[in-house]
């Protein structure tokens, strides 16, 4: 009982084994997954999935930019009363972009240089938007204000995430080119209004633009990790499906070797109940169903080898086992061919029935055909081995009732008066011929030549009392091929066995190599329909027509909500958000990097007084990052990372803290919140609060605009810093609704801050084309917030799909282990326990197994005067159960 319970519990732990392996890897997590994909030959699948995902990302890009440009034009008309001439560049851009990127939606096979065309289309689209967003808008309407670009952050992020060059080319090159254009434009725009080039203003913008590229390059690595993890989980699920099918087929095939097919499923349910009872610790098991059935029209075949005792005295154990194996494998093949169910064989005796599995009017013909095939098998093997041995077979037709009796050792058997007659006919038969009754002969319709029965049968008082006439049917002109088996012998003194003979009539179970091959081939098919599209609105911009090709996205609608990407089942969602985050340390490192940028920006500002406070906040981030990285650092210096156990108390505490940060949901969320608050405070202190403090000190609140230092009071740096905080949120793994709430709250807070700042200073020098300054700054962050929410919804969808694969894998893994337990129980009813384990762990082969015992005791028991019609099988079952419990002995019922 305890072993069964622990086995199932161990199965659930094994389902998390891949993630545990990743947690203790010395290499970086995404590098480990790259190696894993390469080892499993999955690079082709990964590239193909990325190609499909690129189409969806491009659809999202078109959806986002078209939406943003439309809203931009609307704001220009509503708030700024702009003319159509001012909005014309955006209108033209809305028309040109889909046309430029149309080639990226085409089938790759249609174009010889598909990769080149995708890269050219990406470069053209990105540079065109950059040019219109900068120099063209600058040339449309000359003004004395500083015209700032509206979509530099949108374009740079799109280069690294949405455009095809992110997969087909080197996005960093295009990102650098776009960044250079934006920096040049910023300088030209400043010079056009005779604004001095300062390190504070222009240096901060250069840092901002470069940081966007660095952070998005890091985000590409994070996305690679999540996508490879999803593919590996899909691979694990597919592999586990094949393992489960093989285990269930193995379980069912083994059941069908001892039971008719019509009760196999019912008995398997009983086995499942028994395993579940033992797993949950039930001490009083429910009674086993006996499955008593009456079959009124069947044929019974009984066979027995002649001169078997002589055989055992002339041959050694190895030769006997090999000879018996070839005989009974031949019998099994013949039984399968003739659709006859083998009931049991014991020693040199063999019993079959036709008409139990499925009623057939030709059940007598099936049994007789099997009997003649068995005679041919024996004749062939007799010639091969040069032995004087034969078989005596009897066939009788009538009725039987069947049942399964026993608890520890199940026994499926047949009982009736007609069964006793069949055994009697076999005993009084003739070697090399089939001894049949008059009843069976009537079913054969004179299709076979026959002679009168044996003299002993005519004189037998039991047959005479039953008024049964018998006949002999000899071999007919038939052919039957025998496949002899190879042999591997080990005596009991050595006790080392490598392989066993097939139990299931030559049906080979899938080997590990075959399953791996099937999994690889299956992944090449599954990758064509794996989910990629989580946002339905983006479909209107998908010009590939691939969305209709059996995509699996619709399969996830019952499991994942459409908007917030939550699992509809609360327990699954809880398990998902509690999943350890192995990239937490890298997320905190990104946040630390953003904090360093804010400190750097503060250092280049004139007359700053907040460096000490910023340093204090930065040290706090460093400390949190150190705690998160500590386990990884300790593993790097460990000689055996998979079995790493810290010995020092302080070391052990730090490792435990590092693990808590990765695994504990409360710790993770609290850590994220603290870090986001810190960098948001640094972003605010670095710009607005600092300048307000300088304003207060100088008493400049009432001064006219010309007397104020523009470098000191420009609020755009604050907006750019909040954008950096938003990008840092890309790397934070929390539920989408929680992340969206934080982003929206920071966005509102920043808008209020900027609005208050502008009202207090009444400065309108920096804007973008066609908008008032306050609206320009607000639109700059609102546009990015919209992009972030759409992107995060899509990325969260992919992550939830990945976890769904993991969840399904865990369930299939447990089902596979249960099926293996069922197979063990079944095998324990066929073979001794130690032989059963060897059989279950064997490689597929035709080799035999045998054991030699020098000193043993053999017990035979027979129930005297047992009449099943009067006594009942329930009594027989209880007697057999008591004997099995007493000594765990298998007692076949004769």
What descriptors fit this protein?
alpha+beta, 8-stranded mixed beta sheet, two-stranded parallel sheet, 31 helices, 7% strand, disordered N terminus, disordered C terminus
Describe the structure.
With 894 residues, the chain is α+β, with helices and mostly antiparallel strands. Helix content is 62%, strand content 7%. It has 31 helices and ten strands. The strands form two sheets. Strands 2, 3, 4, 5, 6, 7, 8 and 9 form an eight-stranded mixed beta sheet that branches. Strands 1-10 form a two-stranded parallel sheet. Helix 5 (84-100) packs antiparallel against helix 6 (114-140) and helix 7 (152-161) packs parallel to helix 10 (199-258).
Write a short abstract of this structure.
The protein is α+β, with helices and mostly antiparallel strands and 894 residues long. The chain has 31 helices and ten strands.
Topology:
Elements lengths: L1 H13 L2 H7 L5 H11 L3 H37 L4 H17 L13 H27 L5 E2 L4 H10 L3 H4 L2 H22 L6 H60 L2 H20 L12 E14 L1 H7 L2 H21 L3 E6 L2 E6 L8 H23 L4 E16 L5 E5 L1 H11 L6 E4 H7 L6 E2 L2 H5 L1 H5 L4 E4 L38 H15 L43 H8 L6 H21 L6 H26 L12 H15 L1 H34 L11 H4 L2 H15 L5 H26 L4 E2 L5 H56 L4 H8 L27 H4 L1 H15 L7
Parallel strand pairs: 1-10, 5-7
Antiparallel strand pairs: 2-4, 2-5, 3-4, 5-6, 7-9, 8-9
Helix pairs in contact: 1-11, 1-28, 3-10, 4-5, 4-28, 5-6, 6-7, 6-9, 7-9, 7-10, 9-10, 10-19, 10-21, 10-26, 10-28, 11-28, 13-14, 21-22, 21-24, 21-26, 22-23, 22-24, 23-24, 24-26, 26-27, 26-28, 27-28, 28-29
């Amino acid at each position: 009982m305890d072993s069964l319970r622990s086995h199932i519990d161990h199965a659930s732990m094994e389902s998390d084994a891949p993630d545990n392996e990743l947690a203790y890897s010395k290499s970086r997590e995404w590098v480990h997954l790259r190696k894993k994909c390469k080892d499993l030959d999955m690079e082709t699948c990964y590239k193909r999935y990325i190609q499909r995902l690129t189409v969806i990302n491009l659809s999202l890009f078109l959806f986002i930019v078209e939406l943003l440009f439309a809203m931009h034009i609307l704001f220009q008309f509503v708030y700024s009363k702009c003319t159509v001439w001012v909005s014309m560049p955006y209108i033209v851009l809305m028309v040109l972009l889909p046309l430029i990127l149309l080639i990226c939606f085409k089938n790759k096979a249609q174009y010889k240089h598909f990769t080149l065309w995708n890269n050219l289309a990406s470069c053209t689209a990105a540079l065109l938007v950059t040019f219109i967003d900068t120099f063209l808008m600058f040339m449309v309407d000359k003004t004395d204000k500083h015209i700032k670009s509206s979509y530099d952050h949108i374009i740079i992020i799109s280069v690294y995430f949405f455009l095809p060059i992110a997969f087909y080319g080197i996005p960093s090159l295009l990102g650098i080119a776009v960044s250079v254009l934006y920096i040049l434009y910023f300088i030209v725009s400043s010079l056009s209004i005779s604004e001095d080039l300062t390190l504070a203003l222009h240096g901060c913008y250069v840092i901002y633009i470069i940081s966007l590229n660095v952070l998005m390059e890091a985000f590409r690595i994070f996305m690679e990790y999540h996508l490879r993890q999803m593919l590996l989980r899909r691979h694990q699920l597919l592999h586990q499906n094949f393992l489960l099918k093989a285990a269930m087929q193995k379980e069912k095939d083994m059941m069908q070797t001892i039971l008719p097919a019509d009760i196999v499923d019912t008995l398997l349910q009983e086995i499942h109940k028994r395993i579940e009872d033992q797993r949950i610790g039930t001490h009083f098991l429910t009674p086993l169903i006996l499955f008593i059935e009456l079959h009124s029209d069947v044929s019974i075949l009984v066979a027995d080898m002649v001169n078997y005792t002589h055989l055992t005295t002339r041959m050694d154990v190895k030769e006997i086992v090999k000879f018996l194996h070839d005989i009974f494998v031949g019998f099994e093949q013949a039984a399968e061919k003739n659709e006859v169910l083998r009931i049991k064989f014991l020693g040199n005796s063999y019993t079959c029935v036709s008409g139990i599995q499925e009623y057939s009017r030709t059940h007598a013909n099936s049994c007789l055909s099997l009997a003649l095939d068995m005679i041919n098998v024996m004749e062939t093997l007799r010639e091969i081995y040069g032995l004087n041995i034969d078989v005596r077979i009897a066939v009788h037709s009538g009725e039987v009732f069947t049942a399964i009796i026993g608890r520890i050792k199940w026994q499926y058997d047949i009982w009736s008066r007609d069964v006793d007659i069949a055994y009697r006919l076999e005993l009084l038969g003739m070697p090399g011929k089939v001894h049949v009754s008059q009843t069976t002969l009537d079913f054969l319709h004179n299709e076979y030549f026959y002679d009168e029965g044996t003299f002993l049968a005519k004189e037998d008082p039991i047959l005479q009392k039953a008024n049964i006439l018998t006949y002999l049917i000899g071999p007919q002109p038939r052919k039957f091929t025998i496949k002899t088996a190879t042999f591997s012998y080990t005596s009991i003194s050595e006790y080392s066995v490598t392989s066993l003979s097939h139990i299931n009539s030559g049906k080979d179970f899938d080997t590990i190599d075959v399953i791996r091959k099937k999994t690889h081939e299956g992944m090449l098919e599954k990758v064509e329909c794996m989910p990629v599209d989580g946002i339905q609105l983006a479909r209107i911009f998908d010009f590939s027509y691939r969305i209709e090709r059996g995509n699996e996205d619709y399969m996830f609608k019952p499991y994942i909500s459409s908007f917030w990407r939550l699992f509809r089942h609360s327990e699954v969602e809880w398990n998902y958000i509690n999943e350890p985050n192995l990239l937490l340390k890298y997320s905190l490192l990104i946040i630390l990097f953003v904090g360093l940028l804010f400190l750097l920006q503060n250092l280049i500002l004139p007359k700053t007084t907040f460096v000490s406070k910023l340093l204090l906040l930065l040290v706090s981030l460093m400390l949190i990052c150190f705690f998160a990285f500590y386990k990884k650092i300790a593993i790097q210096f460990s000689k055996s990372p998979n079995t790493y156990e810290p010995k020092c108390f302080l070391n052990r505490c730090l490792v435990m803290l590092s693990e808590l940060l990765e695994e504990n949901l409360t710790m993770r969320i609290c850590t994220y919140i603290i870090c986001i608050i810190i960098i948001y405070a640094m972003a605010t202190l670095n710009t607005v609060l600092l300048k307000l403090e300088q304003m207060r000190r100088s008493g400049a609140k009432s001064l006219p605009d010309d007397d104020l230092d523009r470098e000191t009071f420009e609020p755009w740096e604050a907006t750019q810093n909040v954008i950096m905080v938003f990008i840092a949120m890309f790397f934070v793994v929390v539920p989408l609704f929680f992340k969206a709430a934080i982003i929206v709250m920071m966005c509102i807070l920043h808008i209020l801050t900027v609005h208050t700042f502008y009202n207090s200073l009444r400065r309108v020098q920096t804007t973008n084309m066609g908008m008032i300054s306050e609206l320009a700054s607000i639109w700059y962050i609102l546009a990015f917030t919209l992009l972030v929410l759409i992107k995060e919804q899509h990325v969260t969808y992919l992550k939830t799909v990945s976890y769904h694969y993991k969840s399904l894998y865990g369930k299939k893994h447990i089902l596979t282990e249960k099926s293996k337990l069922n197979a063990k129980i079944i095998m324990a009813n066929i073979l001794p326990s130690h032989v059963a384990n060897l059989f279950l762990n064997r490689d597929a082969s035709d080799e035999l197994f045998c054991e030699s015992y020098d000193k043993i005791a053999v017990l035979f028991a027979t129930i005297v005067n047992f009449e099943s019609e009067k006594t009942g099988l329930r009594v027989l079952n209880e007697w057999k159960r008591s004997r099995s419990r007493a000594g765990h002995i298998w007692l076949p019922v004769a």
